[in-house]
Write a structure and sequence with these properties.
The structure is a homodimer of 139-residue chains.
Chain A lengths: L2 E6 L1 H9 L3 E8 L2 E12 L2 E6 L4 H10 L5 E10 L4 E13 L3 H10 L11 E17 L1
Antiparallel strand pairs in A: 1-7, 2-3, 2-5, 3-4, 4-7, 5-6, 6-7
């Protein structure tokens, strides 16, 4: 069967990523582009995740985010190798620290547990400015 | 059980990505960082994939690659949500077009079929300069 590539609407894209758990953050690091997986949640329409203070991801992002307009990409997908079908969504937007302690406490309640454990007290929020998605199915 | 985060050696990382099929390319596009999934093969120690001439990925990458030192990141992972274990590998290096027709023919034989179909005649090769990997397991 022929593959059919179709664009997803923003609403479909947001619905799909609300149900997923792992995404990949992409940003410009000190030595060029960086892409790393993190577990995340969608909170009030924004992507939120935690990284360790002192980790390479944390340090590089921290340096970048010091610029309030620091742009990042966040990609989520679900792809089935056997059937070669699946979907992917990319969010582009500015990344910010969550500095407010009350807000951090609220996010902890949501349960953004970093799977890798350790002291991961650095919350990052990505407010989407562009949401794009695509799906490959078999026609 | 406590999560244990460990670094992978370059040899372990390369062995893992030889057996996977889908990776995410990250690069600086016209409007900021971009992360998109592609199916790939490892050929002579380099990541090789195809994109469509005329696609957004193709166009943005083409513009960037015009600079011979255009750096990209390529991330591959295998993560099990239920057990919260898995591994990820990131390759950083320069991306190049494969322009030579003989080389393109050789790559077609390797079977780098773009799952999304269509006219995808733009071969891209990433020669790793940095390979880093990590694994989360339960101790």
């Amino acid at each position: 069967m022929e593959p059919i590539l179709e664009e997803l609407t923003e609403a479909e894209s947001l619905r799909l990523i609300e149900q997923a758990e792992i995404g990949r953050i992409g940003f410009s690091g000190r030595y060029g582009p960086v892409v790393l997986p993190v577990n995340y949640k969608i909170v009030d329409g924004a992507v939120v995740f935690r990284t360790a203070v002192g980790s390479p991801l944390g340090e590089d992002l921290r340096t970048g985010i010091a610029d309030a307009e620091y742009k990042v990409a966040f990609e989520i997908d679900e792809i089935d190798s056997a059937s070669r079908t699946g979907w992917s969504v990319m969010i582009q937007g500015a990344a910010h620290h969550v500095d407010d302690e009350q807000e951090q406490a609220a996010l902890r309640v949501v349960g953004i547990e970093p799977w890798a454990g350790g002291e991961r007290e650095h919350f990052v929020r990505i407010k989407p400015t562009v949401v794009s998605g695509r799906r490959i199915r078999r026609g």
